[in-house]
Specification:
Strand content: 5-15%
CATH class of one domain: Mainly Alpha
CATH architecture of one domain: Orthogonal Bundle
Largest sheet: 2 strands, antiparallel
CATH topology of one domain: DNA Binding (I), subunit A
Structural class: mainly alpha
Length: about 160
């Protein structure tokens, strides 16, 4: 009789079926959160404010997951249109917001359920200085400065 060098096939064990059950519960939880956001705000993108058909709006991780389960928490999920979700991809959170500051304003409006650090970062990204400090004077760009002896930059 010749012995085979093959390993016996693995069968499903109780631990692997429990893992599958855990995934199903997690998926249900994510679906329930998506439905809660739809009931709360309707199918509105949290980044651009556009109304999107319910069947195409996606649930987006505000801070990218990068394979970590902890980021599936409800305080890290918002509704996003396909365009914003694709534009965000795995960009760092602040880079995405600073590229278009209105995203931070919409996120603050539609993301009241988000964690405090995320909301604080959105607040910072949406702020702009409106007034110059009193001791500084505005400086015109180099090409637009008035040259002595010329009226409005034209030759005489």
């Amino acid at each position: 009789m010749v012995k085979s060098s093959r390993r016996p096939r693995r069968t499903k064990s109780a631990s692997s079926s429990a893992h599958t059950t855990h995934r199903t519960l997690g998926r249900r939880s994510v679906d329930a959160h998506r439905q809660w956001l739809l009931d709360l705000h309707g199918p509105v993108c949290a980044y651009c404010g556009n109304v999107t058909p319910v069947n195409t709006i996606t649930l987006d991780h505000v801070r990218p997951r990068r394979g970590q389960k902890a980021y599936d928490r409800p305080d890290n999920l918002v509704l996003a249109c396909g365009t914003c979700n694709a534009a965000k991809a795995d960009l760092p959170f602040m880079s995405f917001l600073l590229a278009r500051r209105s995203r931070a304003v919409f996120l603050l409006h539609y993301g009241d359920h988000l964690s405090d650090p995320v909301k604080e970062m959105a607040r910072k990204a949406s702020e702009r200085e409106l007034l110059l400090p009193e001791d500084s004077k505005p400086v015109a760009p180099v090409g637009l400065r008035h040259r002595p002896g010329r009226a409005n930059g034209r030759r005489r």
